[in-house]
Amino acid sequence: MAFSEDIVRLCERFGLTELPDEGPVVERKDVVAFAHALKDELGFFFFVYCVATHYPADEKTEQPDRTLVTYRVRRLPIPGVRPTETFPFRLWVPTGDTTPSLTSVWAGADWQEREQFDLVGTVFEGHPDLRRLMMPEDWPGHPLRREYAIETQHFPWR
């Protein structure tokens, strides 16, 4: 997937030279400024999704325990100028650390960040109401983390 020239220029401004199809990896310290630039300068007004994926520590590659947070935003077309466009971007969050919330940029990030907090355990610093969304408040752990033990009884098919 080739990104438009204005996106490439914005990425270069933030030192993002690698632009794979799944989106560039933004530094956590820059993510709010990057998001504001996408919205205010390039017109990405629509927040599509936020997904957190837990990656346990890997001794072979010496990667630490961490979470990859992937965002996707969209801008509408301008007839005769540009088509509609979606843009993904990502950031790594070490386990036990936090990442800035993007609710100050896109209100649509609110419940999606809450869902990722609830199911994966990613803490979004500055979120206005970061509490469990689907699981009970007293639920132990986060069920979409790789180390979460599944201790449910499986019934045989009849």
UniProtKB/TrEMBL annotation:
Domain spans labelled NADH:ubiquinone oxidoreductase 30kDa subunit: 26-152
Domain of life, per lineage: Bacteria
Any one Gene Ontology molecular-function term assigned to this protein's record: quinone binding
EC number: 7.1.1.-
Signal peptide span: none
InterPro entries named in the record: NADH_quin_OxRdtase_su_C/D-like, NADH_UbQ_OxRdtase_30kDa_su, NADH_UbQ_OxRdtase_CS
Catalytic activity: a quinone + NADH + 5 H(+)(in) = a quinol + NAD(+) + 4 H(+)(out)
Residue ranges of coiled coil: none
A UniProt-annotated Pfam family: Complex1_30kDa
EC top class, as a word: translocase
Keywords annotated in UniProt: NAD, Quinone, Translocase, Transport
Family: Belongs to the complex I 30 kDa subunit family.
The protein's role, per its UniProt record: NDH-1 shuttles electrons from NADH, via FMN and iron-sulfur (Fe-S) centers, to quinones in the respiratory chain.
Protein name (record): NADH-quinone oxidoreductase
Native organism: Eiseniibacteriota bacterium
Lineage: Bacteria, Candidatus Eiseniibacteriota
